[in-house]
Amino acid sequence: MSADYIEVAYSRNTAIFARISVVSSALGLGLLLLLHFIQPNLSPLSGFISQYAVGKFGILMNVAFLSFAISLASFAMSYRSLSPSRLLRTGVVLACISAIGMLLGALFNTDSADIMRASPTTIGMLHNIGGQLNLTPFVALLVTFGVRHVDAVKPLWRRMLTISVVVLSFTLGFVITAAWSEGDFGPGSITALFGRLMLVSYFIWQYVALKCLLKNET
């Protein structure tokens, strides 16, 4: 691809989807923060966010997952025709897959810790499949490199790159600590913390990526 930057024409729908994505992710993160305070019994170090859905205020976590699903789908719609790059197209597809994963997380709650250890339910397994479909770290990396020649992204590209590396670092921390824990995520495990940081940092990256579009709206 040429090193020259690509001019992009923005449609009204691009801005609409971008705004929906920003608002949805903000709602999801806000609910997650609220749950952190109203369910303090769940440790942010060893308690996965999915476990909020099992508690008294579980509906809030379901809404948060749904918000994340809408945000990812809207992000894909806003970025889908931004550049001819294969990397971008792949990133958009992975964002759609991640949206499906978040939707599964919203529709099917995880099992409680006791049930998970004894005999996982079908609903719990569907929730786990949704978690495995969360490919957001790769979305950030692929989209960042896929739009590096887009003129509108130029002012914020280095910021997008830096945050995408942070997201990937938290992902590696999650994978390494999960392997180290060998399935035991009780007290002393910090795998859940890396999972939370990975999610939050991804949506910070997504906000920056969408800001590029909104600043160049026509």
TrEMBL record:
It comes from the Bacteria. The keyword Membrane applies. The keyword Transmembrane helix applies. Keywords: Membrane, Transmembrane, Transmembrane helix. The chain crosses the membrane at residues 16-38, 58-79, 91-109, 129-148, 160-181, 193-214. This is DUF998 domain-containing protein. It comes from Rheinheimera aquimaris.
